[in-house]
Structures are given as structure tokens and as C-alpha cells.
Design goal:
359 residues, alpha+beta, Muramoyl-pentapeptide Carboxypeptidase, domain 2, four-stranded antiparallel sheet, 39% helix, elongated, binds zinc ion
Amino acid sequence: MDGYEDYFGLNEPYNTGRKPVQRRSDERRTRGEYSTVQGRKHRKKRLRVSRAFLTAVVVVIYVTATIMLFAFSKDLGVKIKESEEATVAANVLENPVYPDDYETVRVSRDDVNKGFLLLINNDYECKQDGIDLANVSENYNKAYQVTDYAVEANKTTIDHMNLMFADFKEAVGKNDLMISCAYRSKALQEQLYKEEVDEKGEEEGAKWVTMAGHSEHQSGYAFDLTLCDENGGITEFNGEGKYAWIKENCEKYGFIIRYPQEKTELTGIYHEPWHIRYVGVAHACYIKENNLCLEEYISKVKGYSVQSPLEYQDCEMNRWCIYYVPAQGESTAVSVPKGRQYEISGNNVDGFIVSVKMN
Ligand SMILES: [Zn+2]
């Protein structure tokens, strides 16, 4: 038996022994007994008493209400204020941006061409010649091989290569993956392009080797894989069989297969299972889950702003707010949340992509 039943008188012991409540129809019948003159006088007296009584009641109610209003006005004010604040808070929660304080950082026009989310292809040139490069063989964890001691790559990219190839070695039991190329200078790219075009003609050659200045290798964020057996025999990495592990897991380490089979028209480059590009875990997971190439992703992110960011939980269960800020003149003000971990990368096109970690 709960309070609900008690409230509606369904709890029987509450009603037992009570006098029935007199109904209105019973009151009218009672008044009908005073239909004589004496009865009318008596009724007038009763009416005067009633008026006096009613006046007294009205005065008492008025005074009580005034006192209560005065007594609770302060409390009432607080409640109204709380209610307004609750409405504001609810609106903020409806907005995808978390109710953080934001601060402004300034980035330069040159920063559009720096960062791990650069879109580098036939349309957008790599303006940098190596970004935060480090020697691979001096920094690698020996879970893979490097074609020679001179190979360099972006330092963050090497750190993530180490994590990925250590897990690959443990999962698959092989350490025959070899970095055949990572950072490549513009001059070397020019030489490779010329050789390819001389052999295949300009149109076909350009689909295999990118023009000087338009290769991701120039940034240091991309590398190529080959296989090197224990006798030193080199074979092409096709990403099949046991090596499909790379394609299936690379996003967890921030990598994408940059030139997928079905995206040749958008990338302008034939499928290269061996060419792997670092873009960061949040972005790599989103790109893979949504079956995008980098061209499509960079375009999609431009639809998100600091007021309406892309909220996303990546494959490692980290939550992100991702948004685009267009470059404005020589210096751009970028809003970033106070007290949260964030990264800003140029998109190499026309602005910046901000990635804010929300957990
Ligand atoms: Zn490559």
C-alpha cells in the first residue's frame, strides 16, 4: 500500500467511522425551511453576520498574503534566478559545445601549411620541406626495419609507427615490415617524377608519382612499406593476408591508407596499399568509419565551427570536439577551450582544424 492509494482515499481504514460529507443539494434543502417573515428577519441577521464574517475573512486573507509575500519575496527571487540559470544551462547543454571558457590563440598565415592534417595533393602543394623531422633508425623500437640509416620522418609519426608495429609484431608474429621511404625532399621528388614521366608519359606517370612539391613524403607525415625477409629479399607490400592487419588497425595509431582503391578519382593517385599517412587517431578513426579519403574529410570538417563542432568518440573511446577556423589575413584568432588538451593543424587549403580532447 503506497502513498498514492492513501491520497485518493483508497486506503480503507482512513474512511472508517467518518461522518459523510454534506453535499450542496443538502444545504439548499436546509435553507428552504426559512420561508416565513420571522424566518426572513432571522435570515437578514444571519446575512449581516455573514457579511461581517466574510469581510473579516477577506481582511485576514489579505493581511496574511501580504505578510507571506513579504516574507518569501527574497526566497522567491532566488528561485526565479535559479530557474533562469537552469534555462541557460539547459540551452548550453543543447549546444554541442561544452560550457567551457574559451581563450584566443593567434596563428599566422604560414601555419595553414603546417600540421598533421595537411591536405597535400596535385591541387595543394606542400610548402614545407620536412616538419619536425627525426632520424627513424635512431628512434625506432626494432619491431620493424628501416631501409637505411638516413631515413627521416616526422617525430610524432615515428612515435606512432613504433606503437603500431610493436602491436603488429605481437599480433601477427612478424617483424619483416620495412620503411622503404618516409620524408623525401622536393629535389628527390622532382627526380623521381621525371623518371616516371619519361617512362610512362606525363598523364600516366603523374598517377604513379606526384609532382615535385605535391608529395606527402615531403612533409614527413607519410611513409611507404615494403617486406624484407630474413635473407634481405625485398617484396612489395600489398596489404593482404597477415598484413591486412595494418589496414584493419592502423587508424588506432592515427594512420590512414592514403590512396584507397575506390577513391582514385578524388585523390588523383592509384591505389597504394603501402603508402601510409599520419593524421592523428581522432581523424583516422573518423575517416575509416565513414569510408572517406583525406580530400573528403578536409572538405567535411569545413562544415563544423567552434559554435557547432563535430562531436566524435574515436575507436579508442576518446571524445573529441573538432572544428574548422578559416584563415584571415596574416594572423587568425582561434578560439580554444581553457584547461583542455587541444591541437591546431593547418589544412593546407584555407584554414585550421582544431581537435579538442573532451576526456
Ligand atoms: Zn608513398
